[in-house]
């Protein structure tokens, strides 16, 4: 497996566009934006990959071009594909929104019932003493 994204090849230490594969990448983006699923779009483009691999191709910003890779697709197509992926994920309920943490309620006052028992074991005595503590907390955390 190569670390060079699909659609490129390295010649003399520089990334160059592999026109055949780059045409498939463009076809993939066009088919996806026309409403095809990732797998169907990949089939139309002649790309054999799994769903996750196609998803990575559709989100790979290197296809826009950078200091090493020349551009294969334009920024408008890339942005449209990103928006389409987000829209489809939203429709399918695949966007996980973080849950708001529950507010912790901490005791604000303590009182201790009178204790009458004495134990020889200090651990038992401590356990007994802690069992006498009563907290006064309402549901909203106030006294």
Structure description:
The protein has 143 residues and is mainly alpha-helical. It folds into 2 domains: 8-91, Putative Large Serine Recombinase, Chain B, Domain 2 (Hect, E3 ligase catalytic domain fold, Alpha-Beta Complex); 99-143, no CATH class. The chain is built from 5 helices and 4 strands; from the N terminus they run E-E-H-H-H-H-E-H-E. It has helices spanning 19-33, 38-45, 51-59, 75-91, 122-131, and strands at 8-11, 14-17, 110-112, 133-135. It has a two-stranded antiparallel ribbon with strand order 1-2. Strands 3-4 form a two-stranded antiparallel sheet. A hairpin with a 2-residue loop joins strand 1 and strand 2. The longest helix has 17 residues, at 75-91. It is elongated. The N and C termini lie far apart (64 Å). The mean pLDDT is 88.
């Amino acid at each position: 497996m190569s670390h060079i994204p699909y659609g490129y090849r390295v010649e003399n230490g520089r990334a160059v566009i592999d026109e055949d594969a780059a045409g498939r990448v463009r076809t993939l983006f066009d088919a996806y934006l026309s409403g095809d699923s990732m797998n169907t779009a990949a089939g139309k483009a002649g790309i054999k990959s799994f769903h996750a691999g196609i998803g990575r191709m559709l989100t790979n910003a290197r296809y826009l071009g950078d200091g090493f890779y020349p551009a294969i697709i334009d920024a408008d197509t890339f942005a449209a594909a990103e928006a389409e992926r987000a829209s489809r994920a939203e429709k399918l309920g695949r966007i996980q929104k973080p849950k708001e943490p529950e507010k912790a309620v901490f005791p604000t006052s303590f009182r201790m019932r009178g204790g009458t028992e004495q134990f020889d074991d200090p651990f038992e005595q401590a356990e007994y003493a802690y069992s006498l503590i009563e907290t006064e907390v309402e549901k909203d955390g106030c006294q």
